[in-house]
Design goal:
Two copies of one chain form a homodimer. With about 350 residues, the first copy, chain A, is an alpha/beta fold. Chain A has two domains: about 120 residues, Aspartate Aminotransferase, domain 1 (Alpha-Beta Complex), CATH 3.90.1150.10; about 220 residues, Aspartate Aminotransferase, domain 2 (3-Layer(aba) Sandwich), CATH 3.40.640.10. A seven-stranded mixed sheet of chain A has the order 2-8-7-6-5-3-4, with helices on both faces. In chain A, strand 5, helix 7 and strand 6 form a beta-alpha-beta unit. In chain A, helix 3 packs parallel to helix 10. Chain A is globular and about 55 Å long. The interface between A and B is large, with 78 and 80 residues.
Chain lengths: ~350, ~350
């Protein structure tokens, strides 16, 4: 085994949320969109299930990028498509991290960043968030080689303050700054414009949440063309499969469906938050498609109790997070089932 | 740009074969299978184009691995699925290469290995092949951290001698040895069994060629469970998309279709070789789904001439390869068109 890197052998892998086989679970544990993909997307993908699957995909995903460019209102040369935004983020690490470099992240945040840093042999500097919407001063002046943050952040759902993000960009002109906007479509504002203002900013986006396409694996990097060209050198030639590219194209085109489902999720989020508070939970104000909340009965107890009822939510065990649960914003029926089971062990309601 | 790694900024990216948009080309340039995927595969994938595409795929690809295990006659714990074997190979590099390590490859071979080594900051030791089926003695005793070879090799199509491969494994017990068998289904024999004999061997396989699924991106690593477990730590959680996994499952199950199409390609390969020789080409004996051959009229001239006729073949420009062209084994109609155009500028036929 000595042929593997020491840091890989010692690594604790990223553990994704439980993916049950079959349909008998209510899945509120991995922030999927409760709505199916647009019917237009399904029709369009079905048409592409044809004899041409024997051919490699277009390495540049030109058709997909054209639609993405319209949606993001940027040029297609400012975008790279990936096999999920996880792949995009992983490519960024491969393009910029040397062993011994420093990666600055917040705590809490999406735990994949730390895993990727460790795979690259980087040291991770974690900045503890006191207020979930504010970037700590020490991080703003960190000057780490790579600074990566998620806004809205996981698992709290809070978006960072605009002034802080701008200050961070202003103070780290030589760092690569990555803003992971996987949840930005559910937020009041987003930071896509920053890549135009700062050469060294890459925004990542995902179609897994707001486009209901987690199963198709589509994510994007948006940045200056110069940066995109470097990332293209590192990516596998055919990283997005034919049906994935087609699903993405069709989904970007059906703007109406996107708007309608995103609006519904935001309304459901407000409904869920209101009812969680009625049951005595304390909730972070969410800008994402999930709510991070502290249940009165205890987080581990609630998670275990619901699992027996075939309702999955997410419970993280590190630090103060362990008092909280992360509940994805399902549809009204799923939220109803969740709330009614939760009520049974959180009896503070009047 | 100083935030990117120096070696990435300096890197010449891997350049994939030209993928035209539309159907008006005869594509003999990227070793795709001329047959469509099995009708059973298309039917099965169509059924999976449903509302569940909003859910993440199974991170372990359990259903796919079960079928792969039956096909390869190994346990599913000995297999990892990837987004094409390119991704699998890239994960192996990430798991084992530190900056400054040495990667041993043959020349010629699949040029991606060199690109991946450079991305990782490794130095590449290239061993020049004199006989295309024999591994040079110096490589057999190389002791590089990672030794990677392709058998059948690209772009020559020649498989390596069994005794040489075994000797290589025997002499490099502390190296990681990767045998890329993307084309092995077209060969007389394969080296899958070696992972059982040697702890430090990983075999990679692809569904792009022999299963007609280049558009779906499916590849595998087959090795000791211990090695697979390390690779799993490095891979993105959801690297294989839902429809890809389903296509792979269905393709492994339709063994009859696989056998029939592979047999047809081997017969077409023999037909193509015979006719190339009649036209005065000198051909390497191919164990793959392409033929590497030296056209009497010159390789660049032939490639340019055919492109104007909307027939694509591959021409590599490095070293002695530049005298040759690589022609994928198409169907009989495609081969017929290719041969008849080729005859026009290679007039040595009697």
């Amino acid at each position: 085994m000595e042929y593997f890197k020491k840091e890989i052998l010692e690594l604790d892998p990223y553990i994704p949320g439980f993916q049950p086989v079959g349909n008998d679970y209510i899945k509120l544990n991995t922030n999927e969109n409760p709505f199916p993909p647009s019917p237009k997307v399904l029709d369009s993908v079905r048409k592409y299930v044809n004899r041409e699957l024997n051919l490699y995909p277009d390495p540049l995903c030109s058709g997909l990028l054209e639609e993405a460019a319209k949606f993001f209102k940027v040029k297609s040369g400012n975008i790279m498509a990936g096999n999920g935004s996880d792949e995009v983020i992983s490519l960024i690490f491969r393009a910029c991290i040397n062993k011994g470099d420093t990666v600055a992240v917040t705590f809490p945040t999406y735990s994949l960043y730390k895993v990727l840093a460790e795979i690259s042999g980087a040291s991770v500097k974690e900045y503890f968030l006191n207020e979930q919407t504010r970037i700590p001063g020490a991080m703003i002046f960190s000057k780490a080689g790579l600074i990566i943050l998620s806004s809205p952040n996981a698992p709290t759902g809070c978006a960072f303050d605009k002034r802080d993000i701008e200050k961070l960009c202003e103070s780290n002109r030589k760092s690569l700054i990555v803003i992971d906007e996987a949840y930005a479509d559910f937020a009041e504002e987003n930071y896509l414009y920053l890549f135009k203002k700062y050469n060294n900013v890459i925004i990542t986006r995902s179609m897994s949440k707001s486009f209901s396409l987690a199963g198709m694996r589509l994510g994007f990097a948006v940045s200056r063309k110069k940066n995109i060209d470097v990332l293209l050198k590192v990516k596998d030639s055919y990283n997005v499969n034919r049906l994935g590219a087609q699903a993405g194209r069709a989904a970007f085109r059906d703007r109406k469906y996107f708007d309608r489902t995103v609006r519904a999720i935001k309304a459901n989020r407000a409904y869920l938050a209101r009812n969680l508070e009625k049951q005595g939970y304390s909730c972070f104000p969410s800008q994402a498609n999930f709510i991070f909340a502290k249940p009165p009965c205890g987080a581990a107890k609630l998670t275990g109790f619901l699992k027996k009822k075939k309702i999955l939510i997410r419970h993280f065990k590190s630090g103060w997070l362990s008092g909280y649960v992360r509940v994805s914003v399902g549809n009204r029926k799923e939220i109803g089932r969740f709330l009614s089971e939760s009520r049974k062990i959180n009896k503070t309601e009047g």
